[in-house]
Design the sequence.
C-alpha cells in the first residue's frame, strides 16, 4: 500500500454539500458559508478509545465520527464536513483501514456529511483524529454557559448502555439484551435531529455525554455559575439495566461515558415544547432535575431522599 493509492481508495466519489468549493485533492479544502461555523476535533488512540478485541474496524470508524458529530449536535449545529488524520502502524493492512473508512462513510451519509481532507502518516500505534465542521444559524450556537436558575435539566436516550456494552465485550460474560448493549457501544447515534429541532427554542444549554454526566453536569454548572440538582432515580436507563449490580448501575450511568447522548437545561416554560420536538424526532428524553442559583457552582444528586455532591468522576486523561 502506498499513501496515494490509499487516499484514492477512501475518497468520496461525489460530494453532497452544496457549499463545498474544493474537496480532497489540493493543498487544502474550501467551503463557503453565510452561517456561523462550528468546528471540533477529537483524537482516538488504539487501546485507549478502541480496541480490535471489542470492535471491527468498521465500528472504529463509525464511532470516531459519531463522537465528533455528537459534539456538533451539542453545539446545535448541522454536520457538514470532516477531515481525518491517520497515524498508521505497519501491522494494519489496507483492507482493515478501508473498513474503518466504510464505517465513517456509512454514518456520514446518514448526515449528508462530506469527507474533504485529512493526512496519512506512519506510526507505532493506530491513532485517528477527526476534525468536523457544521453550520448553525447566526448567534444560535448552544453553550454550556446558558443554564439559568429555575431551568429544568434533561437527558436524552438511556445512559450507561455504552459502558455496559464495553464490559460485556471485555468480560465475555453473557447477559440479558447483550446485543443491544454491544450495539450501543459500537454504533452510537448522536442526537442531531433533536439538536436541529431545538433551533426554534431561544435558549437551551447543551453538552454531549462523552465522559459521563458527573463530568458534563459539572461543566454546565461551572460554565453557567449555577447548581444542578439531579434526582438519581430519574436518570434514564434501559429496561434491562437493572440486571447489573447496584454499584455498576450507579457508576455506568453517571460516569460510564461514550453514550453520546445530550445533557441540557431549558426554561420550565419551554420544556413542554422541547418534549414535543423530542417526540417528533423520535428522541427519548427525560427531565432529571432542576437548576438553582448558587454561590459556588456544583452538582448535587439526590438518592432516596439523601443528597450528596456529585463530583467529576467520568473519564479523564492525564491522570
Ligand atoms: N490540546 C488542546 N489544545 C487546545 N485546545 C484544546 C486541547 N484539548 C482540548 N481543548 C479544548 O478544550 C475544550 C474541552 O475539550 P474536551 O474536554 O475534549 O471537549 P469534549 O469532551 O466536548 O470533546 C474544547 O474547547 C477543546 O477544543
Ligand atoms: C478499549 C477501550 N477502553 C476504554 C474505553 C472507555 N473510554 C475511552 S475514552 C472514554 C471517554 C471519552 O474520551 P475522551 O477522549 O475524553 O473524549 P472527549 O471528552 O474529548 O469527547 C472512555 C469512557 C473504551 N471505549 N475502549
Ligand atoms: Mg474532545
Ligand atoms: Mg463534547
Ligand atoms: Mg474527555
Sequence:
Amino acid at each position: 500500500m502506498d499513501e496515494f493509492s490509499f487516499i484514492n481508495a477512501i475518497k468520496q466519489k461525489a460530494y453532497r454539500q452544496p457549499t463545498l468549493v474544493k474537496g480532497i485533492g489540493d493543498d487544502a479544502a474550501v467551503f463557503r458559508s453565510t452561517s456561523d461555523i462550528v468546528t471540533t476535533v477529537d483524537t482516538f488512540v488504539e487501546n485507549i478509545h478502541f480496541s480490535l478485541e471489542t470492535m471491527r474496524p468498521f465500528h472504529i470508524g463509525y464511532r470516531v465520527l459519531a463522537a465528533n458529530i455528537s459534539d456538533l449536535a451539542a453545539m446545535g449545529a448541522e454536520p457538514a464536513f470532516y477531515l481525518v488524520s491517520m497515524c498508521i502502524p505497519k501491522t494494519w493492512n489496507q483492507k482493515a483501514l478501508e473498513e474503518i473508512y466504510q464505517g465513517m462513510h456509512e454514518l456520514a451519509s446518514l448526515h449528508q456529511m462530506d469527507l474533504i481532507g485529512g493526512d496519512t502518516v506512519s506510526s507505532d500505534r493506530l491513532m485517528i483524529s477527526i476534525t468536523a465542521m457544521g453550520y448553525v444559524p447566526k448567534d444560535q450556537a448552544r453553550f454550556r454557559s446558558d443554564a439559568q436558575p429555575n431551568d429544568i435539566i434533561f437527558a436524552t436516550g438511556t445512559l450507561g448502555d455504552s459502558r455496559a456494552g464495553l464490559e460485556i465485550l471485555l468480560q465475555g460474560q453473557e447477559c440479558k439484551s447483550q446485543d443491544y448493549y454491544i450495539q450501543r457501544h459500537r454504533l452510537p447515534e448522536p442526537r442531531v435531529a433533536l439538536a436541529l429541532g431545538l433551533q426554534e427554542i431561544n435558549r437551551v444549554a447543551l453538552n454531549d455525554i462523552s465522559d459521563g454526566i458527573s463530568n458534563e453536569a459539572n461543566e454546565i454548572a461551572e460554565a453557567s455559575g449555577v447548581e444542578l440538582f439531579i434526582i438519581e432515580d430519574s436518570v434514564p436507563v434501559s429496561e434491562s439495566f437493572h440486571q447489573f449490580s447496584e454499584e455498576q448501575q450507579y457508576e455506568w450511568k453517571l460516569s460510564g461515558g461514550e453514550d453520546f447522548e445530550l445533557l441540557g437545561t431549558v426554561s420550565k416554560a419551554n420544556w413542554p415544547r422541547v418534549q414535543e420536538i423530542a417526540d417528533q424526532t423520535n428522541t427519548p428524553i427525560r427531565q432529571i432535575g432542576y437548576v438553582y442559583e448558587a454561590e459556588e457552582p456544583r452538582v448535587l444528586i439526590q438518592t432516596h431522599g439523601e443528597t450528596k455532591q456529585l463530583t467529576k468522576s467520568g473519564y479523564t486523561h492525564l491522570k
In short: The mean pLDDT is 96.
